[in-house]
Write a structure and sequence with these properties.
With 527 residues, the chain is mainly beta. It is built from 5 helices and 32 strands. It is 12% helix and 31% strand.
Length: 527
C-alpha cells in the first residue's frame, strides 16, 4: 500500500508563466538528434506475472522455499550468472562488485543479481529480494525474478499464461499477444552496449543489433523478451525475464467514487495551448495538454486507469505516494495530494502533483515549449531556456565551500526572483533542475488563511515546484523528465474544529428530539 506524507499547510500557490533563459555556454554541442516517440498504446492483460514452469504454476513473487520444494535449487557452485540486464546502459560488473552465492546474506531492501537454479539438467536463473527490515539469508528471501535463456544450459518447459508465449516464440507472436511494448532496446551484438531505444539512436553504428521488448509497470515489475536468431530461425524469443516484487492485490472498484467530486477538482482549468516557455509547466502528455497539479479524474477521463488497490482515503492536506496508473502498456507512478479542507478522499478526488517520462519507461510521448521532448539534444534545451539566465557560483557543498571546478552550478534569472537552474554533473547523467518560485498563485482553492504549523516531516522537500531534466553524458540527449508541483496551503484549524463540534451538536440535538418523539408516542399509546 502506498506511503503517506504529511505536508506543511500554507497558502496555495501555482506557477505564473515566466520567460526564462539560459546561456549557450552551459550546454555541450549537439551529438545526435531525437524525435518525439509516438505510436499505438495497445492494452495488454499480461501483468498477472503467472507462468507455467514444467508442470508447476508459478506466480511472482514467490518464496524460495516454495520453488525449492518443487525441485528448483541454487546450484552448490552457483555464483552471479549475469550483470543486471534490466538496467539500461548498465556498466560491466566491477571487480569489487558483490558476488552472490547460495550463502549470501541480503540487507533489508536489497536485490540480488540473477543466480542459476537447477532441477536435474534444466537450468533457470532467479533474482532474490529481501523485503524485511533485517538481514536475511538469500534462501529465506523471496524470488522476484525468473529468467530463461536458450543459451544458458538446458531450458525447461516454460509457458507464459498469455497465449502460450515461450522460448522460441516469434516476434510477431509477442506483439500480437502483448501489444505495443513499453519500450524497445537494441543492443550491439558484439558488446551488448545499448545502441537505440525505440526511435532514439544512442550510437551511430551499422553493426548488427539484438532487440529486447520491455513490458513494464515499474522498475521491478516487467516482462522482457530478447529477440534474436534461434535454431536458424530469425526474430525468435531467445530469453524471457519475468520480474515482479509487488504482492497480488484485490482490484478496487472506484466507479462509485467518480459519482462524487470534491469542490477543489472543479477549479482546475487546463491549458488551451502549449506553454510559450519551458517554465510554464504546461506540456502535452500522451496527446493531452496539462498543467500541474492535475485532477486525477482528468487522467481517468483521458484513458488512464488504476492497476492497484488504492481505495484508501487520503486525509485532507496530505500526500500519498506510489499510486500507479496504466494506459495500454505505459504505466505512471504518481504522488497525489488532497486539497479538500474538510474531508478525506480517495485518489479519484485528489490532484496528481508529479509526472515522469523516461526513454526506458514510462516511455510516454511528452512535449514542452520549443519542441523539447525525450530524445531532444542539449541544443534544443538552449532554445527552450533562452539566454537570460546568468551563471552565479557553484553550489555550496556540505562544508560550506565552493569552487569554480565544482560539478554543480546555479544559474539565476536576474528579473525573476526565486527562479533558477541548477546543473549537476554525475557519472552517467547531467541533471538540470529547473526550480520555479512558489509565491505567485494563478488559481484559488477553497482554503482559509490561519497557519496551524508543520504537522510532520515533509518528505516532498523544500523545493516543491521544479522540473528535473536528465541528459545522458555519452550521447548528450534528453533521457528523462521529472516534474513536480505540489503547492502548500493553510487550514484554519479552529474553524474546522468548530464545524466538527457544530455537526456533533446538531447530531446530538436530532438524536434527542428523536428520543423525545418516541417517548411521547409511547406515553400516548399507554394512555
Amino acid at each position: 500500500m502506498f506511503k503517506r506524507i504529511s505536508v506543511f499547510l500554507l497558502a496555495i500557490a501555482l506557477l505564473m508563466s515566466v520567460t526564462a533563459c539560459m546561456p549557450d555556454a552551459i550546454f555541450a554541442d549537439d551529438v545526435t538528434s531525437g524525435s518525439e516517440h509516438s505510436g499505438s498504446r495497445d492494452a495488454a492483460d499480461i501483468y498477472s506475472f503467472k507462468f507455467l514452469l514444467g508442470e508447476e504454476d508459478i506466480e511472482l513473487p514467490v518464496k524460495y522455499i516454495v520453488i525449492s520444494a518443487r525441485g528448483w535449487k541454487i546450484s552448490e557452485t552457483a555464483e552471479t550468472a549475469d550483470d543486471d540486464e534490466t538496467a539500461p546502459n548498465a556498466d560491466a560488473k566491477k571487480e569489487d562488485a558483490k558476488v552472490y552465492t547460495a550463502e549470501s546474506v541480503l540487507e533489508s531492501g536489497e536485490y540480488s543479481d540473477y543466480l542459476p537454479l537447477s532441477k536435474g539438467e534444466s537450468v533457470i536463473t532467479a533474482r532474490f529480494y529481501n523485503d524485511t527490515d533485517k538481514q536475511q539469508s538469500i534462501t529465506d528471501c523471496k524470488v522476484v525474478g525468473i529468467r530463461l535463456d536458450a543459451e544458458y544450459g538446458t531450458v525447461p518447459s516454460f509457458v507464459i499464461h498469455k497465449d502460450d508465449l515461450s522460448i522460441g516464440s516469434r516476434y510477431d507472436d509477442v506483439k500480437e499477444s502483448c501489444g505495443t511494448p513499453t519500450y524497445v532496446e537494441r543492443a550491439l551484438r558484439s558488446t551488448g552496449e545499448i545502441a537505440e531505444i525505440n526511435d532514439v539512436k544512442l550510437i551511430d553504428t551499422e553493426e548488427e543489433t539484438v532487440s529486447t521488448l520491455y513490458y513494464k509497470l515499474a522498475e521491478h515489475s516487467f516482462i522482457s523478451f530478447v529477440i534474436d536468431t534461434l535454431n536458424n530461425v530469425p526474430k525468435s524469443v531467445v530469453t524471457v525475464t519475468i520480474e515482479n516484487d509487488a504482492e497480488p492485490y484485490e482490484p478496487y472498484d472506484y466507479s462509485r467514487e467518480l459519482k462524487y467530486k470534491s469542490d477543489s477538482v472543479d477549479l482546475y482549468k487546463g491549458p488551451n495551448l502549449l506553454g510559450k516557455t519551458f517554465f510554464d509547466l504546461s506540456y502535452k502528455f500522451e496527446g493531452n495538454l496539462y498543467t500541474l497539479p492535475i485532477p486525477v479524474r482528468r487522467l481517468i477521463d483521458d484513458g488512464w486507469e488504476f492497476i492497484s488497490n488504492y481505495g484508501e482515503r487520503i486525509p485532507m492536506g496530505t500526500t500519498a505516494d506510489g499510486l500507479v496508473m496504466r494506459k495500454g502498456n505505459q504505466a505512471i507512478k504518481l504522488m497525489v495530494h488532497n486539497y479538500d479542507t474538510k474531508y478525506a478522499h480517495t485518489a479519484i478526488n485528489c490532484y496528481a502533483v508529479n509526472m515522469e517520462a523516461c526513454l526506458t519507461g514510462p516511455n510516454v510521448s511528452i512535449l514542452f515549449a520549443k519542441g523539447v521532448t525525450l530524445g531532444s539534444t542539449e541544443k534544443d534545451l538552449v532554445t527552450a531556456f533562452g539566454k537570460d539566465f546568468v551563471k552565479k557560483h557553484p553550489v555550496v557543498d556540505e562544508e560550506g565551500n565552493y569552487s569554480e571546478n565544482a560539478e554543480s552550478f546555479r544559474y539565476d534569472a536576474p528579473d525573476m526572483t526565486g527562479c533558477y537552474i541548477e546543473k549537476t554533473v554525475g557519472d552517467e547523467y547531467t541533471v538540470y533542475s529547473c526550480v520555479m518560485p512558489d509565491d505567485v498563485p494563478t488559481i484559488t482553492l477553497p482554503v482559509s488563511i490561519t497557519d496551524i504549523g508543520d504537522t510532520g516531516v515533509d518528505l516532498l522537500g523544500g523545493i516543491r515546484k521544479h522540473i528535473d531534466i536528465y541528459v545522458a553524458n555519452d550521447t548528450h540527449i534528453v533521457y528523462k523528465f521529472y516534474l513536480q508541483n505540489c503547492p502548500e496551503y493553510v487550514v484554519d484549524e479552529n474553524k474546522i474544529i468548530e464545524e466538527q463540534l457544530e455537526a456533533q451538536r446538531k447530531k446530538e440535538k436530532e438524536e434527542w428530539e428523536k428520543q423525545q418523539k418516541e417517548k411521547e408516542a409511547a406515553e400516548n399509546k399507554n394512555s
